[in-house]
């Protein structure tokens, strides 16, 4: 694995139409940091991850240090599980960056995919069609693909949603393993207790950034109250970016 670079955000705004979903965000993810991204529904958390992954373009401002380093686990609801493909082949997609889409996967690659399946508790699932997996098994499968991708920066969008305690604990252990290996890990999460217990850093987002740093300070009661107020304001009606209008 490459060492992760620092990821720097400078006055980053990402919009849909004229509506900003991430608003004037500045800060840095240190190499090897483990950060939870927290905030109300519609706060721009998924948009931020997608922008870090290069899937969405900033309207203004900059992202530096993320290009080519990132593996993204999208929100489960965003994925189509109906395609007819076996578990081992889905995990092998994780090697595309290395092997190229049209080059043959080597025997070593298949062995790595098998080992990744075993590591997430899916030994023996190689030939199973993806569509036959339970929600928890499918999430384990996506973690196996991340293992194969071997990226210095790992982005997880609500990775523990709808999982039983055992599956969540196993996948959380994988997150800590990645952190221990020096990767930068950024996870969108709604469970504040889990965040406070397991994540040293947090970014509280409500389109604007309300706190970013050591978790306890970033998620202070005052910051969380402010996040709720902002969510109520955008639920009440669409707003445009005042700062940009004033500029
Ligand atoms: N493709 C899109 N087109 C238009 N608007 C979008 C699109 N994707 C997201 N949005 C809007 O951008 C805002 C932020 O959405 P985003 O999914 O980033 O929030 P989130 O914090 O991840 O929310 P949740 O916790 O509900 O998953 C929301 O108002 C959403 O409706």
UniProtKB/TrEMBL annotation:
Keywords: ATP-binding, Ion transport, Nucleotide-binding, Transport, Zinc, Zinc transport
SMART domains to which the protein is assigned, alphabetical: AAA
Domain of life: Bacteria
Name the record gives this protein: ABC transporter
Any Gene Ontology biological process: zinc ion transport
Family of this protein: Belongs to the ABC transporter superfamily.
A Pfam family matched in the record: ABC_tran
């Amino acid at each position: 694995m490459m060492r992760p670079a620092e990821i720097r955000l400078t006055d980053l705004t990402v919009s849909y139409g004229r509506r900003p979903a991430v608003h004037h965000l500045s800060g840095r993810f240190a190499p090897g940091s483990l950060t939870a991204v927290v905030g109300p529904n519609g706060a721009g958390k998924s948009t931020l991850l997608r922008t870090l992954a290069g899937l969405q373009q900033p309207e203004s401002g900059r992202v530096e240090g993320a290009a080519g380093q990132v593996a993204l686990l999208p929100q489960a609801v965003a994925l189509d599980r109906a395609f007819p493909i076996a578990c081992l082949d889905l995990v092998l997609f994780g090697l595309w960056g290395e092997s190229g889409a049209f080059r043959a996967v080597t025997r070593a690659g298949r062995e790595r995919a098998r080992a990744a399946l075993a590591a997430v508790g899916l030994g023996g699932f190689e030939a199973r069609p993806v569509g036959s997996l339970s929600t928890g098994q499918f999430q384990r499968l996506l973690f196996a693909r991340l293992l194969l991708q071997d990226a210095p920066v790992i982005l997880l969008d609500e990775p523990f949603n709808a999982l039983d305690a055992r599956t969540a604990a196993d996948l959380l252990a994988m997150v800590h393993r990645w952190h221990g290996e020096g990767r930068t890990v950024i996870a969108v999460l709604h469970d504040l207790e889990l965040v406070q217990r397991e994540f040293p850093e947090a970014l509280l987002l409500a389109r604007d950034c309300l706190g970013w740093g050591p978790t306890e300070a970033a998620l202070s009661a005052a910051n969380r109250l402010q996040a709720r107020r902002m969510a109520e304001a955008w639920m009440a009606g669409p707003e445009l970016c005042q700062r940009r209008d004033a500029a």
